[in-house]
Amino acid sequence: MTSNQKQHYHHGDLYKSLLDAATELLREGGVEALSMRKLADRVGVSRMAPYHHFKDKNDLLCAIAEQGFRLQEGCLSECEVLPTATALEAYVLTYIRFSQEHVETYDLMFGRDIWKTGAPTESLKQVSKVTFKRWVDWIERLQRERVLSTDDSALRVAQSSWAGLHGLCRLFNDGIYLNPEDLESIARTLVNSWLETTSIKR
Amino acid sequence: MTSNQKQHYHHGDLYKSLLDAATELLREGGVEALSMRKLADRVGVSRMAPYHHFKDKNDLLCAIAEQGFRLQEGCLSECEVLPTATALEAYVLTYIRFSQEHVETYDLMFGRDIWKTGAPTESLKQVSKVTFKRWVDWIERLQRERVLSTDDSALRVAQSSWAGLHGLCRLFNDGIYLNPEDLESIARTLVNSWLETTSIKR
DNA sequence: ACCTCTATCTTGACACTGTCCAGATAATAT
DNA sequence: ATATTATCTGGACAGTGTCAAGATAGAGGT
């Protein structure tokens, strides 16, 4: 290892190639279409080659999820600088849009495959924790600015509101609610329920 | 078929035995531990025997989910006769408790395994639709009684509130939120956000 | 230059999975 | 008794994740 990480051996840049191909496979057919063997095949290496870059299939999934968190972070951070009045709705819509444009990645990021059945990587746990903490901080700010109710702690409001947001995304992503036209409307009702006074409500 | 369905052949009552054993396997190790082969093995029949009672693995999962809906219905219906003041909170707590006591079944009932990846049975679709309709009807009643806001239609309120409830259950069931002590507290915050005026809020 | 070390990649093998297919068995209908 | 039909069995196939042992080849030290 001279300057970079550990690439440029036989294949050239297997780690990145694998991650890219895996994300592609995931997008094409969900997590059940993403097999280690197909992945190796697509990249053009043998069955076991990926195992020198990812300990497990779980490890690979965690890496994809982590990548997803970073991407999401990029999308959401744009909303936080907006003026308070429009920021919340923008945030929610951005969150929803991300979950729709990256259905399978979202499923991995918050799915039981990793968090319950498998075992989340240390770095994945950290990234997700940071993301959630930023949400709590933001809720706190909105409470200070009297946009959100202060009846409950910022943590509790953050948890329950995120539950709503997450639940909504899941219902659509999992194929339970089907009409995508309703999504925005439901989201508005949801945000409405968070707001402090009826006077602000639209 | 003389009087009952189609049992009492070689095994006696394979359909029910399979359903029971499958639910048991599910409870023991989640959906990934429930394999058709292990199931057949546990019941004491050959690999392919279950396929004469369930077209598919998907078909079996749908049957378990359907059974779950009926069980849930039984739990929830007890809350609807309660006086309005306490009914909502009781409903929510009952819903949450069910999802905790039947983690894997709940996952099947509202998971992508069936609704997106697989294909829900016609009867499963119907049962779930009826369950949701009862929720909407109840929301409507609570709106009439001024417990819930009438800013949005009963359908929208039902959708967004259920999203919250479902999202909360998922976060815990999928292993994202871990501290079960927080659950009730978050649930209260959630219900709080649904209520019409601050005067009613606790 | 060579030799060693270690990272990288390959192949064989194993124990699983869902389920198609062809046959065996047994209960029911005629 | 015979025919039909429901039920059950075992063989086979194409998948899966991954352990273990070996091949290859680039890097570092002499």
Describe this structure in words.
2 copies of one chain form a homodimer. Chain A has 202 residues and is mainly alpha-helical. The first copy, chain A, folds into 2 domains: 10-54, Orthogonal Bundle (Arc Repressor Mutant, subunit A); 65-194, Tetracycline Repressor, domain 2 (Orthogonal Bundle). Chain A has 9 helices and no strands. Chain A has helices at 14-29, 36-43, 57-77, 84-101, 103-109, 112-117, 122-144, 154-173, 180-194. In chain A, helix 3 (57-77) packs across helix 5 (103-109). The longest helix of chain A is centred in the middle third of the chain and has 23 residues, at 122-144. The radius of gyration of chain A is 20 Å and the shape is elongated. The N and C termini of chain A lie far apart (59 Å). The model of chain A is unreliable at 1-8 (pLDDT under 50). The structure holds a DNA duplex (30 and 30 nucleotides). Chains A, B: GO terms for molecular function: DNA-binding transcription factor activity; transcription cis-regulatory region binding. Chains A, B: Keywords: DNA-binding, Transcription, Transcription regulation. Chains A, B: It holds the Pfam family TetR_C_33. Chains A, B: This is TetR/AcrR family transcriptional regulator. Chains A, B: Residues 35-54 bind DNA.
